[in-house]
From TrEMBL:
<keyword id="KW-0812">Transmembrane</keyword>
<feature type="domain" description="Casparian strip membrane protein">
    <location>
        <begin position="39"/>
        <end position="190"/>
    </location>
</feature>
<keyword id="KW-1003">Cell membrane</keyword>
<keyword id="KW-0472">Membrane</keyword>
<feature type="transmembrane region" description="Helical">
    <location>
        <begin position="124"/>
        <end position="153"/>
    </location>
</feature>
<comment type="subunit">
    <text>Homodimer and heterodimers.</text>
</comment>
<dbReference type="InterPro" id="IPR006702">
    <property type="entry name" value="CASP_dom"/>
</dbReference>
<feature type="transmembrane region" description="Helical">
    <location>
        <begin position="181"/>
        <end position="203"/>
    </location>
</feature>
<dbReference type="InterPro" id="IPR044173">
    <property type="entry name" value="CASPL"/>
</dbReference>
<feature type="transmembrane region" description="Helical">
    <location>
        <begin position="90"/>
        <end position="117"/>
    </location>
</feature>
<dbReference type="InterPro" id="IPR006459">
    <property type="entry name" value="CASP/CASPL"/>
</dbReference>
<dbReference type="Pfam" id="PF04535">
    <property type="entry name" value="CASP_dom"/>
</dbReference>
<protein>
    <recommendedName>
        <fullName>CASP-like protein</fullName>
    </recommendedName>
</protein>
<feature type="region of interest" description="Disordered">
    <location>
        <begin position="1"/>
        <end position="22"/>
    </location>
</feature>
<keyword id="KW-1133">Transmembrane helix</keyword>
<comment type="similarity">
    <text>Belongs to the Casparian strip membrane proteins (CASP) family.</text>
</comment>
<feature type="transmembrane region" description="Helical">
    <location>
        <begin position="43"/>
        <end position="62"/>
    </location>
</feature>
Amino acid sequence: MASTDKTAVDSESAPKSEAAPPDAEAAVAATAKFPFDYSVVDVVLRILVFAATLSSVVVMVTSDQTEVVPVPGLPRVSLPLQAKFNHSPALIYFVAALSVTGFYSIITTLASLAVVLKPVYSKSFLLVFAFLDVVFVGIVASATGAAGGIAYIGLKGNNHVGWTKICNVYDKFCRYNASSLALALFAAILLVLLSMMSTFTLYKKISD
């Protein structure tokens, strides 16, 4: 009888030992819903935004070039003329917009690190991120478009209004401008990804 009772007790306790604890089941469910850590990816992308905007501003600011060019109407007279970003309001706006975006990326990177340390505030931060990222996508896109228009005029000119191209003379200035615009476009794409990620993750957290 004792052996029979012991066998019955063992058969009853076996299923209990196989059952996973509630905390482990919750962790598995959370992993299935979020296969990657959003906060870490967010921090990495915002660091990339800062690097792209900083590089873009540095390249644009250092694009100045001086060349000796003939004076229009006086073909025998040549003067040294300098091409700089601050000669164009569009390029000044571009540098200002990218500088503000770089400062914004620093602040939001620190905020993302705070979310990593204290995930309880993640919903509030995600809502702010989703709104501000869209705003800065518009700022960077408008600045890139304005600077791109000036760069195109410098490359091709405009015969209808008598604007001559300058990239055949100021080649370094134009190359630096093109590189700066490419970096700004990369930053805009990163901001779009951040906005989409913030919105999607916020939706998932609210729906759960």
